[in-house]
C-alpha cells in the first residue's frame, strides 16, 4: 500500500492508446459486434490506428470439405470480404487509419504469436460469449488472450 505522502503527490496521467487491436470472429457476430463498437469508440477520440483481426481456422472444416482443395481458399475469401466490411464500417465511423489483418490458426495463438508482435498494439479488445459454447471462436479464446497478452486486454460482453 502506498504511503499517504506518495498518494498526495500522485496525479492521474492520461493514457491514450496509439494502436488498438480488435479481434473479430466472422462466425460469431454476437460477441464481435460489441467489441468492434467499443474499439471504434475508444480509437476515434484517441486518433489511434485500429487493427481489425480475424482468424481463419482450418479446424472448422469437416473431413469431407478438407478433401476439397478449394475449401480453405473459399474460407479465406469469405473472411477477407467480411474483414473489409468491418474496415469500411470503421472508416465510415471516422477512423481513417484502419488496418485489416487476416491470419490463420487457433485464434489466441495466432493473435498473440503473429499479430501482436507485428502490429504492436497498446490495447487488445475482444468479445466474449456470456454462455459457454464448444469450438474455438475468438470469444471463447478470450481467456487465453487475457492470460498470455503482453499488453492490456479489454473483454467486452
What would you say this structure looks like, in words?
Helix 5 (107-119) packs across helix 6 (142-148). Strand 1 (19-23), helix 2 and strand 2 form a beta-alpha-beta unit. A 5-stranded parallel sheet has the order 3-2-1-4-5, with helices on both faces. The protein is of the alpha/beta class. The chain contains 6 helices and 5 strands, in the order αβαβααβαβαβ. The chain has one domain (18-156): Rossmann fold, CATH 3.40.50.620. The radius of gyration is 18 Å and the shape is elongated. Helix content is 46%, strand content 19%.
Largest sheet entry: 5 strands, parallel
What are the segments in which pLDDT stays under 50 over at least 5 consecutive residues? none
Q: If you consult CATH, what is the topology?
A: Rossmann fold
Radius of gyration: 18 Å
Family: Belongs to the universal stress protein A family.
Domain UspA: 18-157
Protein name: UspA domain-containing protein
Organism: Bombilactobacillus mellis
What are the key terms here?
single chain; about 160 residues; alpha/beta; Rossmann fold; five-stranded parallel β-sheet; 5 strands; about 45% helix; about 20% strand
Amino acid at each position: 500500500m502506498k504511503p499517504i505522502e506518495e498518494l498526495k503527490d500522485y496525479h492521474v496521467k492520461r493514457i491514450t492508446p496509439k494502436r488498438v487491436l480488435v479481434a473479430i470472429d466472422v462466425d460469431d457476430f454476437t460477441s464481435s459486434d460489441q467489441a468492434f463498437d467499443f474499439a471504434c469508440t475508444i480509437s476515434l477520440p484517441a486518433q489511434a490506428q485500429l487493427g481489425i483481426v480475424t482468424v481463419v481456422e482450418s479446424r472448422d472444416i469437416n473431413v469431407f470439405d478438407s478433401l476439397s482443395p478449394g475449401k480453405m481458399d473459399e474460407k479465406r475469401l469469405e473472411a477477407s470480404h467480411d474483414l473489409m466490411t468491418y474496415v469500411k464500417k470503421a472508416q465510415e465511423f471516422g477512423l481513417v487509419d484502419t488496418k485489416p489483418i487476416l491470419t490463420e490458426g487457433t485464434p489466441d495463438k495466432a493473435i498473440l504469436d503473429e499479430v501482436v508482435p507485428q502490429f504492436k498494439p497498446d490495447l487488445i479488445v475482444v468479445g466474449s460469449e456470456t454462455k459457454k459454447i464448444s469450438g474455438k471462436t475468438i470469444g471463447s479464446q478470450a481467456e487465453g488472450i487475457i492470460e498470455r497478452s503482453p499488453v492490456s486486454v479489454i473483454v467486452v460482453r
